[in-house]
Amino acid sequence: MLIALPGLILLIAFYYVPLLGWVYAFFDYKPGYNVWDCTFVGFKYFKAVIESDDLVRVMRNTFAISFLSLLTTPIPPLFAIFLSEIKNKKFQKFVQTATTLPNFISWIIIFSIAFLMFSVDGGMVNEFLLKWKLIDEPTNLLANSDAAWIFQTLLGLWKSLGFSAIIYFAAITSVDQELLDAASVDGAGRIARIRYITIPGLLPTYFTLLLISIGNILSNGFEQYYIFSNSIVGKEIEVLDVYIYNVGFYLNNYSLSTAFGILKILLSIALLFVANTLSKKLRGTAIL
Amino acid sequence: MKRFKKKVLALLLLVSLLMSMVGCSNTTNMEEGQTNENVSTTEAAEASKKPITLSIFGAPFATNFTSGKQDDPIAKAIEAATGITIDIDAQPDQTKWQTMLATGDLPDIIMIAQGSSAIDDVKPLIEGGLIIPLDDLLEQYGSDIKQSSSKMLEYSKKYVSNQTDELYFLLGFQEESPKQFIWEVAPNVRWDYYAELGYPEINSAEDWLNVVEEMVNAHPTNEDGKKVYGFSPWFDWGLWSFNVAGDIIHGLEGKGINAGFLGDTDMVTEKPINQGILSDDSSIIKGIRFFYQANRRNLIDPDAFIQKYDNALEKYAANRVMSCIVNWVYQTPNALFQAEGKTTSGYLPLPVNSSAYYMDSVGQFGQISRGYAISTNCEEPERAMELLNYIFSYEGSRTLLSGIAGQDYQEIDGKLVLNQDIIAAQQSDSNFSLKTGIQKYYNYVGLGSSAIDPKYNQPVNLFMTPEAFQTQLNGLTEDYCNHYDVSYPAEVMYDRLTTMYQDASLGGFAPATPDDLKEIEGNAELYLNNEVMRLVLAQDDAEFDAVLEEIRAHLIKLGVEKVITFKTQAADEALAKRAELIGE
Amino acid sequence: MKKKYKLKEITFQTFGCIFFIAFCILCIYPFYYIFIYSLSTPKEVQIHGITLLPLGFTLENYITIFQLEGILQSVMISASRAILGTIVTIVCSSMIAYVFTRQEFFARKFFYRLLVSALYVSAGVIPYYITMRAYGLKNNYLLYILPSAVIPYYVILIKTYMESISETLHEAAFIDGANYPTILFRIMLPLSKPILAAIGVFSAVNQWNSWYDNFLLVTNGKYQTLQLILLNFLNQADSISRQSNIDINQMKNFVLTPTSIRMTITMIAVIPVVCVYPFLQKYFVRGIMIGAIKG
What we know:
- The structure holds three protein chains of three kinds.
- By secondary structure, chain B is α+β, with helices and mostly antiparallel strands.
- Chain B has 25 helices and 17 strands.
- Chain B has three domains: about 50-175 and about 365-465, Periplasmic binding protein-like II (D-Maltodextrin-Binding Protein, domain 2); about 190-360 and about 475-510, D-Maltodextrin-Binding Protein, domain 2, CATH 3.40.190; about 515-580, no CATH class.
- Chain B has a six-stranded mixed beta sheet with strand order 2-3-1-4-12-5.
- Chain C has two domains: about 1-70; about 70-295, MetI-like fold (Orthogonal Bundle).
- Chain C is flat and about 70 Å long.
């Protein structure tokens, strides 16, 4: 298995060796001092993490938003399937390329555009609704804390749909064409073919990605929620990544931030393995 | 297989082509540091003029030019004088700084203030052996520094040396009485509309709100027909807006205060005079109340609660906001009015009534946040000291701030006078400082703009003298000056102030804040940032008071009272030590 | 019966097209907005805003950026790392992915779990810096290639795809006397073109847009990436617009606004990718499998 060797070495060298840095969390470390000269504090910072006041609220936000995202995971594969059913190949390719565009727009600009669309004063959506007398007062979507979770999820979906679908476009090609042809000869309609052949063909990919996403529940991503945060919805969309950043910014304590990071990573991996075991019990197969 | 082999071959060719373009053969060993570009003789005299490059990790708040080797006329002047090319990292970043500290990978010269507060960097740098003591180098190469900065040197040795009494840091930006053309923090309003209303007196927050409301009622839309607002603040800068607004209101009421959310400082006594958010008459409370009342009177742009700074700028640029707590946001519309010929339209700061008000932060001993040190990695510390000697000399600072002698200014009758064309260029050229290099290194000078050169008895920044200011007036500012009978806008304030500067050196005299108190302060600020909007958005006074009670209770629970006590003690100590040094 | 079928088909195609067109507009318009913003005069668009057409048409944003020092060199660097890095990534990642599909691999489960866990671990800035430095990757072009040679996410995707390739192919190949490397390079890789093309897109996009490794570890002017130069320029403009501690006169006349620069940078980041992706789409094609088993 010599082929495996270079890959494994690279993996360990670049992903696991740096983890030696986790030692910082156990000391009162400040950059500039040698870590071994600093006071050893054991689990002090880990305790501090668990005892933080805001942690409950932040975890609630994180889980809620992640849960909503998980609900949207079937959409990219369905999108890919239906697009591949469109006859015109040129149109298919155009849509494929066009829908990946939002992925490249940074969140700062997405905010600018969202502001352009939804701001109270002069936002395009409000102007349109007011002009056509559909509402009396302008809406303030960006400051709506009730709709915040759904709004952010939809934004995330819009941004990542086309790009995520790329994997499924590739995976669809692995579905056996012979089987599909045989099925349609036997009289299976479009829905039947999709249901019994295409979808099962995509399931391994889908479930693998789903399990990975479950492991990512705690990592919603920093940029989106930091940028859309404002004084009104801030508390609803402050997810773990943003919270860790804020704590790091105001407290400027490297050891504490490291402790946060370690706990988050361990919890994520634990989630992954739990999901994996569940998957084994329910579906009979697991990715690990 | 043959096709595959061909493909691989083609790729390899492409790769090697790219690599050669990239030229990775000879430069993989280059660390941050210098390259000796000329090998010359070993004669001591010639060696001191040998061209080298020194790398500098720049000031974190001065990211206004591109990193790398600088080649503008001023940088060339520095080269001519010292033989040194400067390579500045002009985008210094907190994370990068931490990695540098952790590994000791510092460039030749560093400037502190990369951390949350400059004084925090002192200890690890010295204890970690990352920077070198400068006493000997100063003796040999720092003659100009000794001449211009004796007070700073004493201060640095005693208070910015981690109790070692050795010289480690050279603190730049020494000056005692800077004068500006115009000042930022004030009730800025639309000047021509203010004139229309008959220049009403503004002596309180209430007056300010009234005047702005009248302006908005008189001119409800801008030229494009879009709605106009009284205020359009942005709240993504933390508690800044409230602190600044509070200071302004204190000024209107006749007191000079520097805000702190856990205790304001009185500018005259330089001591904390209240408990910040826990007191009712602190700047932050006044600021929060101000925006709360503005909101109740519908003077605030509804987007203020969701917009970022960049979005807010657009509103100001479009003439849709009557008033702001700072003036710089109005640069664009002011310039446009002048260009369009509406020379008396624009936005200017209104004077306040106190005899003490914050105009600038000065350091007679230099400012710690502009502290230079030479790192142990520097291979030619003598040359580094020569460079610093130049920066801290009168000639050097003057070159950085005013231009090249003989070319940009002339000596006439023993006085230095700026050339007309350079004055004109500064007013009109959009890239003036980047092109000429003049004031590009504003934040890197050893001596601040108003430091007086004993040879000519003039400040080193010839652009920032009252005479120079008079040449910078335009239609709008001239109208303003006529009304207040002064020769340049800020003179209105300078005339009525006796205390106008905050001493930036007090930080060095104060004892270091212990870690547990820092943690409490950090948590308090984090909490307050999350809650403060509930106050501004309160529907009525009862709600406001109730929420304030809640916030105060929580902060006390966090332990802020300990921090407040410490700060009061620290201020007393600092003042005592400063008195000792000055010899009062 | 046939007529009904045809009607159903036409309805489906029509509604499908309408739906996709609508979604495309939703994706394209913001991008279009960025495009026209980058072609508008910064100060004007800051005041008046735009909807469908640029305001005060100007190429100034682009010209300023193309005149930035070191920009051409950085384009070469970013392009070369996108190409080289992607090739290295595809080769290394697929090698290890293939090994993971083989049941007989020693401690397969353990190593695979190690791989998947690596998806979530990150050590923090300082350990990252120290490790890269220890490996000699500071100021080294290889920093852009080596650490991203094996990316867990890609490996997992490739492995999953490879597992859908029939096992009988392997058996046939073994009988024919092939060994692992041969099977990998002659059979598995060509059959995995679709997923490799997808990974190629991801990797190229990632490499093109990377700047953080450059930021922390590479100060040599020859190795600067495009994104970092653009980002620095953006920071410069940003700090001027905040008038933080700089001479008041500097801000007054600076012509570009940070927002305009951001828009222009986005265009520069996207355009190369938009050009490359259509080329790779031709790999998303069915039917490569059919001949494989029979033949």
